Amino acid sequence: MDIFLQQLINGLVLGSIYALVALGYTMVYGILELINFAHGEITMIGAMVSLAVINLLIGSTLDLPGVMIVFMGVLTAIPACMALGFVIERVAYRPLRHAPRLAPLITAIGVSIVLQNAAMLIWGRQYISFPPIIPIQRYEVLGATISNLQIFIFIFSALLMAGLIMLVHKTRLGRAMRATAQSPQAASLMGVNVNNIIAITFILGSALAAIAGVMVGAYYGLAHYYMGFLLGLKAFCAAVLGGIGNIAGAMLGGLLLGVIESLGAGYIGDLTGGFLGSHYQDVFAFLVLILVLVFRPSGLLGERVVERA
Amino acid sequence: MVVGALLAALPFLVDLGLGRSWVRVLNFTLLYIMLALGLNIVVGYAGLLDLGYVAFYAVGAYCYALLASPHFGLHLPFWVILPIGALVAGLFGVLLGTPTLRLRGDYLAVVTLGFGEIIRIFLNNLNAPINITNGPQGINLIDPFYVGGVSLNQAHTIAGIAIPGSYNIYYLFLLLTLLVIFISMRLQNSRIGRAWVAIREDEVAAEAMGINTRNIKLLAFAIGASFGGVSGGLFAGLQGFVSPESFNLLESIMILCMIVLGGMGHIPGVILGAVLLTVLPEALRYIGDLQRYLFGSVLVDPSDLRMLLFGLALIIMMIFRPAGLWPSRQRSRELSDAK
Fold first, then answer.
1. Of A36, A102, A115, which to mutate for an interface test with B (greatest number of B Cβ within 10 Å)?
2. Nearest-CA distance B119 → chain A (Å)
3. Distance from CA of A155 to the nearest CA of B (A)
4. What is the residue range of A118's domain?
5. SS3 at position A136
6. Are B318 and A106 inside 8 Å of each other by CB?
7. Which segment of B183-187, B197-201, B293-297 scores lowest on mean pLDDT?
8. CB of A306 less than 8 A from some CB of B
């Protein structure tokens, strides 16, 4: 039982990070019907930038408390990623808005390759460790352990998601975003500046990705120029699981995927009599993806749309 | 005739002009042309976006590796293995195609991408408890191509002219590439080829015209996959070594980019794309020399810069020529109509 609870906790924490990244995919897909392949890389850049700032502050003569240093790191990473998201949209996606469908997908892949290799040139090929400046405390809950970092990640991402839902459903900007997602032409006739809304969507998604990047870095204690790729893929799976284009769906999908992955990795050895081990963890995301797409292509919360050619 | 003579003389010319290592590049170019034409059937003809194509390449390569290496102690000749590889890869194509037939567009892209990753993860981990793929270390000492006890990978002297191993492989690959091109062309103009195009343009209308869309799409997957399987086998025989590392997503994307850059569904365009994208990264290696010439020293490691420039090239290409460098006449017409 305690193993189950432990895996559940790990899964929920991991899942909340997936959910943050998945939101970026789902918002962009909702409006542009484009898989923003570079989104995972934005997460990576967020982790790298914050790490650079954190290391700089630790090395400096300023004697800041640990929490403050991490906070500064996050505060630099967010605008950096926002700017990056804005530039990517402007340079690689906007000129192709009326091109054949495959074209923006290819530029997205191109952007992803460029970001990965730029990060590799700047920060090198090796894994960079996240300095443990915030003391980790562990608490015992019903035989499972949970750390203060895990609690923080979970609560903070929950707050961010609540904030995003408020933004999308309660503000004027959110209404404009929903209108653009339904029909860009109609929205522009109603006086919505569609180009601005699309740019804002990218910026918002990138900000969330930056925070998720810092969280992943702090959680695993490592950052690497290639870390965004698998994270991005899994977050995309989460977005599809929840129903792509649906914001609540992305959150649900992220959490579910995290839990499925943790529980799956924890129990697959027992279930197959030791034939398959926990290193198959990464398979689950794709397996879930395939199953969802075969049996419920619209995702858990997505409405059934008529198939678009 | 002229083209034939040129193709036959190509390795000699390349060797003289650029050096022996470029003959190897030439072989890889032929390999990628085969791969790109295989994917072109799925993506270009039938319009099914497949981002996991490298999985079939991997299946073919591991077929060859398992059937012709000391790993299981089997040493079958390559002309037996290649059809087996094609068949097994084709079966995998059907395996992937069956559950994903109802999907289209981006969704299909992601499922196939996931499939490619799953195959790679399995190759990486199927070394315990039964050692099938030898895990991340991969399989070593794979047999070279033998024809009647004569290894093609070694140099031979025929009529007083020494022919290095890479030349023999070139002729073998050339033969198979021409076969693949021939099959591609015949398929394009066949009843099946027209059915693929019909499905690509409008699936509902195609079905109304009496096309069994399910079987025809499965056929596209299977045929495309079997081309990938053959190429994979050739890759294993050429390298003498396979490991899961060679079959990552980037490889799938690279092959897709060849098609898109060249011009989807258009055989000369696809060949052009494959040639460009195989030769270009090699040529970009000279950036190191260029830097030394410009700045006096190598500022940035050229192999690091290579992929960066490649990514940039992709973006620029798509913005300025979204239909590819050499699109078919029909497609460029469609695109200009849309504007």
1. A102
2. 9
3. 31
4. 24-229
5. coil
6. yes
7. B293-297
8. no
Q: Residue A201's closest CA among A89, A58, A71, A66?
A: A89
Tokens read off for A16: 């909340």
Residue A213 lies in a domain: yes
DSSP string, B112-148: HHHHHHHHHHHHHHTTSSS-SS-GGG-B------EET
In a domain, A220, yes or no: yes
**Nearest-CA neighbor of B232 among B135, B71, B88, B77?**
B88
Nearest to A286 among B118, B308, B322 (CB): B118
Q: What is the pLDDT of residue A286?
A: 80
pLDDT at A79 over 90: yes
Tokens 């990640």 locate to: A153
Cα–Cα nearest to A253, from A290, A301, A208: A301
What confidence tens digit (pLDDT) does each residue in B203-230 have? 888 888 888 888 898 999 999 999 999 9
Residue B3 has pLDDT above 90, yes or no: no
Higher-confidence residue of B253 and A14: namely A14
Task: Answer yes or no: do B125 and A285 touch at CB < 8 A.
Answer: no
| Location of structure tokens 């499905």 | B199
Asked if A304 has any chain B CB less than 8 Å from its own CB, the reply is no
Residue A275 DSSP one-character state: S
3-state class (DSSP) for residue B30: helix
As a whole number of angstroms, the distance between CA A235 and CA A146 comes to 23
- Which pLDDT band, with edges at 50, 70 and 90, does B165 fall under? confident
Q: Mutate which of A41, A286, A298 to test chain B, going by most B C-beta atoms within 10 A?
A: A286
What torsion do the CA atoms of A147, A151, A154, A158 make, to the nearest 10 degrees? Answer: 180
| Predicted confidence (pLDDT) per residue in A154-181, tens digit | 999 999 999 999 998 999 999 999 899 8
Measured CA angle at B10 (ends B4, B12), to 5 deg = 130
Q: Does any domain span residue A85?
A: yes
* CB-CB neighbours of B316 under 10 Å: 14
Placement of tokens 């024809």 in the chain: B147
End-to-end CA distance of chain B: 41
pLDDT of A217 above 80: yes
Q: Determine whether the interchain pair B307/A117 forms a contact, defined as Cβ–Cβ distance below 8 Å.
A: yes
The pair of structure tokens assigned to B102 is 């109802």
Number of domains in chain A: 1
A118 vs B contacts (CB less than 8 Å): 308
The distance of A89 to chain B (nearest Cα, Å) reads 12
Residue A173: how many CB atoms within 10 A of its CB?
Answer: 15
Q: What is the pLDDT averaged over residues B160-176?
A: 78
Provide the pLDDT confidence category of residue A125 given band limits of 50, 70 and 90: confident
Q: pLDDT value at position A158?
A: 92
pTM (2 decimals)? 0.81
Integer angstrom CA distances of residue B194 from A274, B216, B265, B327: 49, 10, 12, 18
Torsion sign over Cα B34, B36, B37, B42: positive
| A35 in B contact zone (CB under 8 Å) | yes
Alpha helices in B240-301 (DSSP H): 249-262, 267-283, 287-295
Taking an 8 Å cut-off on Cβ atoms, the answer to whether B315 and A307 are in contact is no
Report if residue A177 sits inside a domain.
yes
Domains of chain B (ranges plus CATH)?
A: 22-276 (1.10.3470)
Global ipTM: 0.78
